[in-house]
Amino acid sequence: MSIFAQLLEFIGDPAHWSGPRGIPVRIFEHVWYTALSLGIAALIALPVGLLIGHTGKGAFLAISIGNAARSFPSLGVLTLLVLAVGLGLTPVLVALVVLGIPPIVAATYEGIRGVSPATVDAARGMGMTEFDVLRRVELPIALPLVISGLRSSALQIVSTATIAAFVALGGLGRFLIDGLGVRNYAEMVTGAVLVALLAIAVDLVFALFSRIVVSDGLTGRAPAPSADTDLAPATTH
């Protein structure tokens, strides 16, 4: 039997869709680890990116540390943390947060620094405080890049959250670890396919979110002409 047929057989088995080890539960666990890690990473990285982008101070240090953190092997970080604090959710969250912070910091910084200085000076000339300039001028203009940083971070986290299974937690990584333990390749392929599909779903959610919250003027999307405008007769004088 081909691996594709085994995959369909595994997914089609009702027993794999119920109970604490079923596919829905594993997907929920994986999404929970991803959402929690992304939320913590955003709480840390967004203020840092906004601050260094607005002030221009500490950019080299922050970006350098971010790039160094991005190069850390997540499994290696997880192993060190487990040796230091033991098993549990904390080592997994720390490893995923470390992975998720750099894309958010870099994209937020680039977005804020990319705002035209003339626009910023005009806002200051209108009497806006520095906080108002950041909140009402720079951040709305930088929003597409900020969201792209969150999007990149989310994709990296959701793809790496399988490491939770290495410390006896749940998530889709359980299919990979458990399948490897009993040489059930159909289970392993199912886990890999589900992670890929979940990553695609996350990417689509962020694309839709960006389309909703980002101004058409920043994306280049022109509003469609109304039917009344198209059908209105030309007026001659």
How would you characterize the overall build of this protein?
The protein is mainly alpha-helical and 237 residues long. It has a domain at 39-169: MetI-like fold, CATH 1.10.3720.10. 76% of the residues lie in helices and 0% in strands. It has helices at 3-12, 23-55, 59-70, 74-85, 89-113, 117-125, 130-160, 173-181, 185-213, 216-219, 227-231. Helix 2 (23-55) crosses helix 5. It is elongated. The model is unreliable at 226-232 (pLDDT under 50).
For the sheet with most strands, the description reads: none
Structural class, from secondary structure content? mainly alpha
Percent strand equals under 5%
Shape assignment? elongated
Helix content: over 70%
Which CATH architecture of one domain would you pick?
Orthogonal Bundle
β-strand number: 0
Run of helices and strands: HHHHHHHHHHH
| Count of DSSP-assigned helices | 11
Instruction: State the CATH superfamily name of one domain.
Output: MetI-like
Write the CATH fold name of one domain: MetI-like fold
**CA gyration radius, whole angstroms:** 23 Å
